[in-house]
Amino acid sequence: MAAISLRDVRKNYGATEVIHGVSLDVTDGEFIVIVGPSGCGKSTLLRMVAGLEPITAGTIEIGGRVVNDLEPRERDIAMVFQNYALYPHMSVYDNMAYGLKIAGLSKQAIRERVDVAATMLELKPYLDRKPRALSGGQRQRVAMGRALVRQPAAFLFDEPLSNLDAKLRVQMRLEIKSMQRKVETTSLYVTHDQVEAMTLADRLVVMNAGNAEQIDTPLNVYRQPATTFVAGFIGSPAMNMMAATVAANGRGLELDSGGSVKPRDTALAETGRKVLLGIRPEHLSLVQELNADLKLAVVAVETLGADTLAHGHLADSRGAGGDLVVRLPGTSPVKPGDVLPLAVEPGMAHLFDRETGKRIEA
Amino acid sequence: MIENRPWLNFFSHVVLILGVAVVALPVYIALIASTRGPNDFYSGVVPLLPGPHTIENYKQVLFAGISTSGAPPIGLMMFNSLVMALSIAIGKIAISIISAFAIVYFRFPFRSLAFWLIFVTLMLPVEVRILPTFKVVSDLGMLNSYAGLSIPLIASATATFLFRQFFLTVPEELMEAARVDGAGPMRFFWDILVPLSRTNMAALFVILFIYGWNQYLWPLMITTDPHYYTVVMAIKRMADVADSIPQWNVVMATVVLALLPPVLVVIAMQRLFVKGLVETEK
Ligand SMILES: Nc1ncnc2c1ncn2[C@@H]1O[C@H](COP(=O)(O)OP(=O)(O)OP(=O)(O)O)[C@@H](O)[C@H]1O
Ligand SMILES: [Mg+2]
Question: Is residue B167 one of the residues assigned to a domain?
């Protein structure tokens, strides 16, 4: 167990920089999830921590020791790979024991550790099998067992669940979480699945194009996205974004697409500032005509059972822009062509600077 | 095919049986000839039924040798062939798996140059470079020695190339997992790569053993001492006696004996060999 800290870590492939200086402090025992779209550099960052990829600049510390130039084996980490990377010619037992054998543990000690891990992961009946004779979920468990028996300072996971079907993914997600709770080992977990990210993380690192856009608890990331990218990436359907200008005399926001809104309990920026107004689909609710902040002309309706998603555009929008999605209760009788009067829930509007995309705090 | 077309069936069977016959008949004739007496061949008719002289013929070949061709007993030559074939097969596999390992898994200066140099030797089998090779071997004093018989044939690229192609299909994560598990390069080589290459090695072993066993030209050039003759040379020498008719029964007994080791190797390696050809162990 150990704290991990990254200081302005950068990575270049030739002339192109793919990680633009990421800093992160992980406390002992914390579960950090790195999430972001494909190609944003999540794997690269993780592999740099593992020592599989040399870093171009910055420092990485594990347990207070700078590991920049150490081989993976000297970093005291264990990694779970996306395609499991089990040794195909070794039995499950040997797969789990291999690292311990190399570390020079006694046969007896190895047996005990593998036994504990196999019990925890319910792998005991399969110890003599080859990986080829296991299901995807079982292989996944072996890969985790291999990491577990090492009792490393940190676990590194690179999209370990992405090859499993949806149901198994949920189950394994819970297992990983409870396993990590039990052994309290610092973990870095890479995924592009936001549900996985939200449910597993103590803290989230949201990455975009080689930058860590926000590092915070899942709820804070959801409630106070630091940038428009984070706002759009976390949450499904994505947050509605509307270009607007702050109107004079506290009259609210003039929408570029026409009309104006005055969200309640939201501090507005200085007059004339060009902003993006962000409202999550679930933070709009159907109200009386009189109390409406916005009016939505419904174009399409998606019925999900528990919820109904209404897609459309602002009723007083002129041409482009002003597209909007609303999440309504499943019972709402909505159909295309309706015009829905909507109110923004108090305090649930987000303002971002239009130039920088950064959140405007009150 | 699900359709039942009797004529097609009949025709394909005829073709297959003819094919088998073409391959098997000479073997059969050799086998029969090795059981006959020395005088059964003067008539010019090839005997097709076994004769009574089996034990006698094989005894003579194995222990007495044939005086007319100045050949020592065949046992020694079988042994020479075995040493040569084994050295070539094992030497080639050992060298090429290591060089393929270096080329695939290490970054070193002139890596691709090294690969291409090895690759180019594919175009230079022994027969092409036989004179310069002979000169080198003789200057090194390796004429009439096991080293001279095998080393020049070990140096070639086929197997390196095959191992390289195989290593390229081994997922990179396996190497990374081993690194994280604490395995250094040689550990990874022995614990992961070599076991994974087992079936490839078996297949190569069979092919190279037969290649080594069947060498004719090279042993012929560099051996003048009968103690280093190989069995393939012996067959040629026996069949080639001057001023008299070859003792076909004895020659054929030698042929049959010379056939045995490759057959045994194929049978012994069959399980792994077939697996190596049809299945990539995932
Ligand atoms: N060897 C390389 N040479 C050049 N660029 C590379 C190399 N490896 C990765 N990249 C680039 O680095 C960026 C980050 O790659 P990385 O594998 O970390 O993405 P990722 O976030 O893990 O994506 P995914 O979710 O698809 O796995 C990508 O844009 C990729 O093109
Ligand atoms: Mg990745």
Answer: yes
